[in-house]
Design goal:
heterodimer; A: 181 residues; alpha+beta; Nuclear Transport Factor 2, Chain: A; 4 helices; 6 strands; B: 414 residues; Rieske Iron-sulfur Protein; Naphthalene 1,2-dioxygenase Alpha Subunit, Chain A, domain 1; 2 domains; globular; Ring_hydroxy_dOase_asu_C_dom (chain B)
């Protein structure tokens, strides 16, 4: 096991009408980019609205130090709802995060009702707290690098997340974060 | 009392000796350099877990007090440690964090540690077994038998952790940490464990401030999770017990995990010989922590990088025999609190980094209070007092005035 993400040969819906496949792929990209904007603006519940009831969320990383595929966070949709509800109860770093996402591949299922996508992402942390806000606030630092491995259910032409794995490349995570990535 | 002027602010607090310290112990470069020499080069450090090098010829690299260290498992299954330094010209022998010497390297043969620079080769016992063009260059003046690696004291103990000491004649490891581990010895040695989590944090704070946070539970007020799952009579009765060599153990109680929305009881996956949902904490001088929350064991190891900079390595462990489902549950239990995206660790790291901001090289010295007295229960600060009494002995410095020599009376043990 390593950090490589397996990319299958392109599948655009097999025997589906190509225009339907294209519409599904467009819907998938739209959902991924909307998710990026909603996460950046910390509209957590609006982000969850893009997720199906069956949604599962994982943050994972391969560790060459211990030769183990690690799961830093695993949650169902219900778990994420609780996590989000309790955020105000927790102390946290207030520095906003922004995600730069590029959708690399979209594969549409044969029936046009499912899809999967691989995207690259970079998360920057825009320091508000930092170590000393007098000095650090306003600086942007690279926080995370990785890939989103997403799966979708297509409902009324709209792509709903059924799973997201945020697979991280960096394992020096310093203070970490309470927020979905 | 109203806010204080500078003179009042700098005055010694109205507490007994030993109940406060001077922040220069966290900020002074000379003290930091001295700590590496006097403490870290003489203390037992759990550098990794045996499950990180499960097969013969597996290795892990690490460092202690600026010295690179390699740990490898020999064909005899023994785990040994060496300085990761070639005796020829000081090259780092192995550069990867982990791997295997079973296969050959570009510069060397299978089953050898090979320095890529000039192809000197060493076996798993640290013997030099090959010098390229040995006779041509050294004739009989420097036989390979005289240029073995620097071996280090190394033992696998207390649940399979690999302990290394740079001192050739340290205090015996059992004598060093046996008593604090007694509360969990049966549990940790019942069956093999396996590491399932690793990450590291480099934060701008002194390593002792991290260890202080692991030694005091008064900061549970910072953690919503701990307040709702723990604040009850049994919690406040937990004992903070001091042991020789500066170690402490925080006794257990039953945690009500299901009081935190979305969390579940951990009773089904308790470690061997433990009642359900227990929470033990062992803090070892000078900066190691073993934290068992029922179903998952966490281990922190500090690597001090400067007076205001520390790397902390976090490991999570379960039982080697776990089914995939059990393992995933343990991982969830561990990381929902202690992972980099968990509820508590982020808060802890913000806390110590905030201290690091107010106490950095060049900051005015401050009085840091360790004076809570609660019959050595959970919010008593006796753990930190005990630690700094030990620190004073090792450093021959008085924690409340680090320019003065240590005196036992001044920071008398509880």
């Amino acid at each position: 096991m390593d950090t490589q993400v397996e990319i299958s040969a392109p599948t655009m819906g097999g025997g589906l009408d190509p225009s339907i496949s294209r519409d599904v792929a467009d819907a998938v990209r739209d959902t991924i980019y909307r998710a990026t904007i909603l996460l950046d603006s910390q509209e957590w519940n609006n982000w969850l609205e893009l997720c199906d009831e069956s949604f599962s969320y994982d943050i994972k990383s391969w560790s060459p130090e211990i030769n183990y595929d690690m799961t830093y966070l695993h949650a169902s949709r219900k778990d994420m709802e609780a996590l989000i509800r309790l955020l105000p109860k927790h102390n946290t770093d207030h520095s906003p995060l922004t995600r730069h996402t590029s959708v690399y591949t979209v594969d549409v299922g044969d029936n046009g009702e499912t899809a999967s996508a691989v995207s690259g992402f970079i998360v920057f942390q825009h320091l508000l707290d930092g170590t000393n806000s007098h000095i650090d606030s306003g600086e942007s630092r690279l926080f995370l690098v990785g890939k989103y491995l997403d799966t979708f259910k297509i409902v009324d032409g709209r792509a709903m997340f059924t799973s997201r794995i945020a697979r991280l490349e960096n394992r020096r995570l310093d203070k970490g974060s309470h927020w979905p990535i | 009392m109203p806010a204080r002027n500078h003179k009042q602010w700098m005055a010694a607090p109205n507490l007994k000796d030993g109940e406060w310290i001077d922040s220069r112990v966290y900020t002074d470069q000379a003290i930091f350099d001295e700590e590496l020499e006097k403490i870290f080069k003489n203390a037992w450090i759990p550098v990794c877990h045996e499950s990180e090098l499960p097969k013969a010829y597996d290795f892990r690299t690490t460092s202690i007090a600026n010295e690179p260290v390699i740990v490898c498992r020999g064909p005899d299954n023994e785990v040994r440690a060496f300085l990761n330094v070639c005796p020829h010209r000081g090259m780092l022998i192995e550069r990867r964090p982990s791997g295997s010497f079973y296969e050959g390297q570009p510069s060397g043969n299978p089953k050898r540690m090979t320095c890529m620079f000039h192809a000197w080769q060493f076996d798993m016992k640290g013997n030099c077994v090959y010098i390229s063009r040995e006779k041509e260059g050294y004739q009989d003046r420097l036989p390979k038998e005289s240029v073995g690696l620097r071996r280090l004291r190394c033992e696998v103990k207390f649940g399979g952790f690999v302990w290394v000491n740079l001192n050739d004649n340290p205090v015996d490891l059992e004598e060093w940490a046996g008593k604090p581990f007694e509360c969990l010895r049966k549990t940790l040695d019942a069956e093999p464990m396996e590491v399932f989590h690793y990450h590291k944090a480099i934060v701008n704070t002194n390593y002792k401030l991290w260890h202080d946070t692991n030694c005091e539970f008064y900061h549970d007020f910072m953690h919503y999770h701990n307040r709702v799952t723990g604040f009850n009579d049994a919690y406040f009765a937990r004992k903070n017990e001091a042991f020789e060599h500066g170690h402490i153990v925080v006794g257990t109680f039953e945690v009500n995990y299901d009081q935190y929305e979305g969390f579940e009881s951990r009773a089904g996956l308790s470690f061997p010989h433990l009642p359900p949902n227990q929470w033990y904490m062992i803090d070892l001088f000078p900066g190691m922590n073993f934290n068992l929350r029922g179903s998952a064991l966490r281990c922190d190891v500090v690597t001090p990088l400067g007076p205001d900079k520390v790397m902390i390595e976090f490991r999570g462990l379960g039982l080697k025999r776990d089914t995939p489902e059990e393992r995933q549950t343990r991982i969830n239990h561990h990381n929902s609190i202690w992972g980099p995206f968990g509820r508590n660790l982020h808060e802890d790291l913000i806390g110590v980094q905030g201290q690091g901001t107010t106490m950095r090289p060049g900051s005015e010295s401050r009085r840091v209070l360790h004076g809570r007295q609660e019959n050595q229960t959970i919010h008593d600060e006796n753990g930190m007092r005990h630690y700094y009494a030990e620190w004073g002995k090792w450093m021959n410095r008085l924690p409340s005035n680090p320019e003065a020599p240590f005196t036992q009376v001044a920071v008398a043990a509880e």
